[in-house]
Each structure stands twice: as C-alpha cells, then as structure tokens.
Amino acid sequence: MSDMVDGTVKFFNSTKGFGFITPDT
Predict the structure, then answer these.
(1) Cβ distance 9 to 20 under 8 Å?
(2) Residue 22: CA count within 13 A, CB half-sphere
(3) Cα(20)–Cα(16) distance, rounded to whole angstroms?
(4) 16 vs 5, which has greater pLDDT?
(5) What is the largest CA-CA distance in the chain?
(6) Predicted confidence band at 8 (pLDDT cuts at 50, 70, 90)?
C-alpha cells in the first residue's frame, strides 16, 4: 500500500495497480 496519499482507500485493484482514495479532509 502506498503512503503518498492520506485518506481511506475505498477501492483498490492490486491486479491493475490503481484505486480510489477518499481524502481525510
């Protein structure tokens, strides 16, 4: 998992290597 974005991962597809992040703002 990456530490580049602070937030909660709503969806992550490790096979394709992308996901959606919900920022903690």
Answers:
(1) yes
(2) 4
(3) 12
(4) 16
(5) 28
(6) low
pLDDT band with cut points at 50, 70 and 90 for residue 17: low
- Burial-class residue 19 by CB neighbours within 10 Å (0-12, 13-18, 19+): middle
Reading the block at residue 25, the tokens are 């703002």
> Going by C-beta distance under 8 Å and a sequence separation of 6 or more, which residues neighbour residue 18?
12
10 and 20 Cβ atoms separated by less than 8 Å: yes
pTM summary value: 0.17
